[in-house]
Amino acid sequence: MPRKNVIRKSALSPTVLIAGGAGFIGSHLSEALLLQDARVIVLDNFKTGRDFYIGHLLTHPKFALYDADINVGFPPEIESVDYVIHLAGLEEYLYSEEQVNLDALLTNAVGTKNLLDLANRSHAKFLLASSIYVYQGMMSQITLDSYFGRTNIEEKKYSATEAKRYAEALVWEYYKKNDTNVRIMRLPEVYGPKMDLEASGNLGRLLKELMDGKDLNIYGEGVEKEHYVYVNDVVSGIVRALFNDRTVGKIYSLIPPEPYSVLEIAFLLKTLANREIKVEFKQKIKEMEPRQAYPDTSNLKDLRWEIKTSFKDGIIKTLMWYGYDVNQHSFKPAKFIEEKNREKTLIDSLTTVEGKVSPEAENELISSLSNVAEFHTPEEIKGKKEKKPFPLAEAIKGKISIFKNLFKKEGRSQTKPQSIPPAGKSRNKIMLSIVPAVLFALILLTVGIPSFMSYAYAKKATSDIREVPVLLSQFKTTEAQTKANSAFQNFSKSQRFFSQLGWAFSLTGNRDMYNSSSKVLSSATYSSRAAYYFSKAAVPFSSMWETIKPNSEKEFSAEEFEKYRSDFQTARNSFQLAQAEYKNVDKDDLPGPLKEQITEYENILSAAGQNLDLFADGMNSLPDIIGIDSSKKYLILFQNNNELRPTGGFIGSYALLELEKGKIKNLSIDDIYNPDGQIDVRELETPESPAPIKEFLKEEKLYLRNANWNPSFPQSAREIQDLYYLITGTKTDGVIAVDLYFAKNMLDVTGPLFLTAYNEEISASNLYERTQFHSEFNYENGSDQKRSFLTVLGSKLLEKMFALPSGQLPVFWSKMYENLEQRHMQIYLTNNPFGAVLQREGWDGSLAGVGKDYLYIVNSNLGGNKANYFVRNTVDYNIMSETRDGLLRGNLTLTYEHTGEGTAWPGGIYTNYVRILTQEGSKLTGARIVYPDREEDIFGNMIITKAGKYNSFETPVLIEPQKRVQLKVTYDLPIGLSINANNMNYSLFWQKQPGTQDDKFSFKFEPPFGLETGQSSFDGTLTGDKQFNIALDPK
Prior knowledge:
globular, seven-stranded parallel sheet, seven-stranded mixed sheet, decarboxylase, 4 domains, 40% helix, 20% strand, 29 helices, transmembrane, NAD-dependent epimerase/dehydratase domain-containing protein, Rossmann fold, lyase, Aminopeptidase, alpha/beta, UDP-glucuronate decarboxylase activity
């Protein structure tokens, strides 16, 4: 559904708005309503919702998604609806200990009111999803420190319960006073596919323990009970209540006939486990004993609703969705089950979202498989020949037959002996010679061969899996699938042989080593399976890279992504299992050789997790970004950091990139002075320039070249978009900014470029020098003279990047990631969900939103020259406490050393406008400039203003060539960051300015009196954002 359309009620199909529709329950409800031909509008702020839950619905013509906070308001496109379902704030306390209680309270108060008002305006039916736990709760009688409970879990649970009680009261008031068409649905613990394993009370915890391969823990006697309903049954109840006229003004409690105790759940999971597990009883955690809820369910007959999915069936479906190999034949002896599990391939045991192996997976991976050790690719299976016996095994077999003959009873021999040996002596000699041979053979069979085979298969698998990322970065997805498949086979075989060594480890007292090593192999097996399906899911990205090239004749469609979405979900499930297995590994128990490699594997798991999240977001957003349905236009800004500005440098050139149907429709590069010249020629009214630009550059109007003044790149980007539209009438969908360091990194990949217009070769080694040299060309605004050096360079560089051979793509992607991490490339997207991802990763150039100590130094060259080429920066930041209350004080010294030798342009005096961004609530206490021959107190002249939520301390500083100048500033940190009995930790987020690279820094934390810490001083080069966390302890 196009987002630009106005959404209003329609007689053709019911329009349903779901607040919190990207959550666990909301995503299932959205799917069910779409199947009933309803129009579904989802509002979610993604605090607990997940975009990949509903990403597959984005292409549905009757589905729309808005990233919106219902506490603030609704998107202007939403005019009226037929039904409003309030699911937001339902799961707030369950997902993260970092979730703030305030979110749940506001969502159920302000958010509920806003939704009720919308229902009133639209004459719509309204349903509030509440909780059966509104019957429970506690409140402190003497202090606000623990108002809702003694523990963090109690605080979050019962504050959410209180929020639901208030939401119900609001609904009642609207029903009584406004005659609003309302109903309330109280829900118990809900479980099923997509549930968060941290949620759903004791069930969530026990499921997680089972998935992690741990024994099941019961705290206390395990007799406390909770009601559980499968998510599909909940969806059925909501739909029935919503579309039933008899439900107005009523409250329904969707609960099953009987609750389940923790003990019952534990032993049910034990029967479903695919291995032997124990149920262990532990001391109960002291929490408030909740009163068991037994709500009235007599009115459920109005809905004709009943439980369709039994508790056991629901648990099985949930486990299978997560890819867990469920033992559904619990009546069989455990040993028989274990043997059967060995005969099944691991691929067959891990299912897709629907709980069944997809046809593609069956055809490609598990056709005619009998066991893990004989796992083959489909091609190998088709032409499979009878296997020849393993030579070593045959040799051992022969040896065993010799031993058997030696032990045959003499009475069975057909040849009579010539003589009888002396009593016992000959037999003793024979036995003495045979026993060592037998022992050696047994050790070889039971230890030597399994050890060797396990090691050999694991080594081969490791070699295969290491090639997968390289192949994927080259978009060689077929080869990547082959390598990942091979790795899976070999890790599985290694696991099988290693499992034969358990007794030997136990015998030698190394059972912990065996368990941890086994978990590593299990995790690696799941990882390789994830890599296989991830390689399949990456196929559309390969097609897109070939399509987007300017000279390509191929076309691309959004359906390419949809075809492989299930493969990605399977990859994600497998990866979660890999992580779960690895969490049970104790690195101290691993053998030496494996311990050396485990750090590398740990880093791979961490990187893979991040990449999967990005991949999920990319699959949902990329079709829109590349203009599949409608043309998209992006501004690319080339910033010269030799003339440093807040977002990276002076904007000397720009490009307009137009994408349509996944292809580059147009790419034009121009000098910034051409559109800027139009402002004066046509006497266009633009906003006023910021005060520092007025003062030092004498420009009253704001031009594009100076519009990147806001240190938050999204803010500057929006200013630039507005100006560009004013000048050209062209609306753009995003802004990308790059600097000279970006160009240098790309030249490392592409190699030198020959610029015909300048008759010279530009390489990574001479880029800065040649850029500085050609800066002396200064053309008139709006002129048609020869394009600037950076304009020509940018055009040639983009041309070369798209022509890179596949062998250079891994380095290319590595450099692109480096550019984003070091802020040499910033991306802002207008009205696209992927913008939130860019902000989360720190790639959109916005001010980081942190509650800890914050430091961001923004230098801006307002001298009209390229003096930054000659200036070296050093920053020293010290934190100390001089008062008993633990108030922290920051001492900041900025040192600027100008290495230039004259005042001739493009060098000259460095006129630097300095902004020091600090945490909100910081108080400036002193400021002075130290020149080579004098010192000046500028405290009274410092400008104090705001940049976003942060305080900004500002002043100009002039540095002459061959001079060294220091700016020294002191300020008190906010009281909330003080060190005291309630806060024994200090944290700092130090944000790096785009366009900088070699700034030196030092940071030192001096503990308050009576406290001590570990490492408290750090120094280095500020190549990216830095975070420091310091824990304090009493001496």
